[in-house]
Amino acid sequence: MTVTADPYYRRLLTVAAAQQDQDGDDDPELAVGLAPHRTDGFVPPDVTVHDEDLPGPHGPVPVRVYRPHHADDDRPVLVWCHGGAFAYGDIDMPEADVTARVVAERADAVVVSVDYRRAVDGVHYPVPLDDVVAAYEGAVRLAGDSAAASRRVHLGGASAGAALAAGACLRIRDMSGHLPASLLLLYPCMHPVLPPASPELDAKLARLRPRTRFGADMFAAVIENYLGGPDATASGYAMPAMADLRGLPRTLMVNCEYDDLRASGEEFATSLLHAGVEVCLRMASGVTHGHLNRPHLAEAQRTLTDMARWIEED
Asked: Given 3.40.50.410, 3.40.50.1450, 3.40.50.1820, 3.90.180.10, which CATH number is that of 7-312?
């Protein structure tokens, strides 16, 4: 195990290792939806890709920019944030790279994938969020640096990346009022403490082994490591379920059927609706958390197509 002086990161590593050691079997009928990160022969589209750095308050923010071949400047833009419990993941994982390639091609869009600083060894909130806000501002400048240009820029993410995208949108709303064209939130983590699961969700989660789930200890360790403090210290920017959600742009949300975080996504969608936000909510059937990391699955392809159509419809 990595030795670290940061008590929150050390606890995350300890809890994660213990969870991986837990026994138990998944329901064999779910095996295809439980595959680890892999593509299983799926070949993502060939698009133009380049890396660059955008200015940020903590130093340069690396991004990877994906463009359809022969794309002109008048294209919608998606600023995309991968997941990974705020401390893991990278822009090479399928949830980042394959998603960006597929959406760029299917939506005829530019995708800016953000390599935000992760909550590792003393890095905590608001640093990852600051990076995402800086990447969004950089993408708006690339699109024309105006209120009209910002209406072509969408903001989204998966899991922890969805929390960062929504938190960045709240910050942008409060700082400048130039909102993204829309939000795309995939299997999001929006609460500092998970809402109770419904009986229906509980029954489905019972089919999973403990190591496949977000147990209470694991979830608490993830949130406290991100915050650098107890979950009670979470602000609305850090955990968007705590915020006033009025005025946010139209939102696409996709939850996974077999996922502890579905309770957070469903409750957040309800809160958005109560705040007067247009929401399209759908369920990715038969899959567990992080299905975009398994793009060979039919359900992952359906989600990618839904994301592209959502951007095209703007």
From this structure: 3.40.50.1820
